[in-house]
Amino acid sequence: MAESEKDQFDDEEAEEDASLERRKKIFSKELRCMMYGFGDDRNPYTESVDILEDLVIEYITEMTKKAMEVGRPGRISVEDIIFLIRKDPKKYSRVKELLMMNEELRKARKAFDEIKYATTK
Amino acid sequence: MKLIQNCFRIVIVKMDSIKEGSVSPVSSFMAKDNLKSPSSEKGDQGDDVPELSFSGQSESESETPEKPHSTKKTGDSSQDPKSSPSKSSTDSPEKKRKLELTEEEQSAHKHKKERQEEERLKMQVLVSNFTEEQLNRYEMYRRAAFPKAAIRRLMQSITRSSVSQNVVIAMSGIAKVFVGEVVEEALDVIEHTGESGPIQPKHLREAVRRLRQKNNIPNTKTKKVLFNT
Predict the structure, then answer these.
(1) How far is the CA of B50 from the CAs of A82, B56, B58, B82, in angstroms?
(2) Looking at CA atoms only, how far is residue A47 from chain B in angstroms?
(3) B197–A30 C-beta distance less than 8 A
C-alpha cells in the first residue's frame, strides 16, 4: 500500500523509502543547535524542532521549484537564487557574503598549494 | 522638473547600491550632495529636453563605473563657463557626473572598508565582554549549519539534475537565515503575549502566519484568484 501511494505522488515528495506518514527527520541535530543559537531554550521542544524542519524543507523545496523556472528552465544556477532573493536584504547580503568568502578561501588555498609546490620542488 | 531630477537621483543611487551589494547610507547621501551642485549650476536651462537626455545617459554611465578621471576633469572645468550651445552644455555635465560618480564611488569604497574595519573591532570588544552563557549561544549561532550533503540530496531529488557546489552553499545559507527569521518572530510572539520559556508549536505557527503576511515565505501551492469570472 505504501508503494501505490508513492506512485501517485510526485518525485518531490517521495524522497525517501520510508512511508509518507512518518518522514525521517534529517535536520534534527543541527536544528536544535541553530534554535539555541537564535534565542530559544537550550533544549527546545521536539515538536517545535519538527515543525521547523518541515518548514525548512518546504522552504527549500519552494525556492528550488521557483529557481527552476527562472533563467534556464530546468536547471538551477546561483544567479537564479540571487534573483529570487533580491527583495530580502538579509538573505541577499548573506548569500553575497558567503559566495565572496568561498572565493577568497579558494584563492587562498590555491596560493598555499602553489607555494607548497614551489618550495618542495 | 525638480521631480524628474529627484527621480533620477534616486535611480542613480539605487544602481550604485545594487552594485555594491548593500545599501550604504553614506554613499547615498554623498550621491545626493554631488548631484546637487551641477544641477544648481545649470539652473538657467528651464527645458525638460536637455535634462531628459542627461538622465538617459546617466543610467548607462552608472553601469560603467571605471573611467579615467584626471584628464577629463581638467578638460571639463575649462569648458563649463563657456557652456551656451546646448550640445556642449549637455556633454560637460554628463562628463562631470561621470567623474563624480567614480570619485564618489571610490570614496564610498574607502568608507565601506573603514566601516567594515570599525564593525570588526566593535564585535571584538563585544564578544570579549560576553558572559559564559552568551558565549555558548554565540558559538552555536556561528557554528550551526545545515549539512551540505543533505541539502544537495534534497535539491537533487527535486530538480533531477545535479546542482553545483555554489548553489548548495547559497541554499544552506538562506535556509539558516530563514530559520533565524522564524525563531526571532516566534520570540517576538512570546514577548507580545507575555509568556516565557521554550518556544512552543503555537508560537511557531503564529510566527509563520505573520511572516506569510509580510510575504517572507514563498508559497506556490495555493494561488490567489483575483477576479472570479
Answers:
(1) 37, 10, 12, 17
(2) 7
(3) no
CA distance A5 to A7: 5
**Is A33 within 8 Å of B140 (Cβ atoms)?**
yes
CA pair distance A36, B136, nearest whole angstrom: 9
In what helix (H) or strand (E) does residue B174 lie, and over which residues does it extend? helix B165-193
Q: What is this structure's pTM?
A: 0.64
DSSP state of B81: G
pLDDT digits (tens, 9 = 90+) for A95-116: 999 999 999 999 999 999 888 8
Query: How close A4 gets to chain B, by Cα (Å)?
Result: 19
In angstroms, the Cα distances linking A2 to A5, A18, A21, A60, A76 are: 5, 8, 10, 25, 31
CA B186 to chain centre: 26
Task: Give the SS3 label for residue A49.
Answer: helix
Q: Give which of A107, A31, A108, A41 is closest to B175, Cα–Cα.
A: A31
Tens of pLDDT along B51-101?
Answer: 344 433 444 444 344 444 444 444 444 444 444 444 555 566 777 777 666
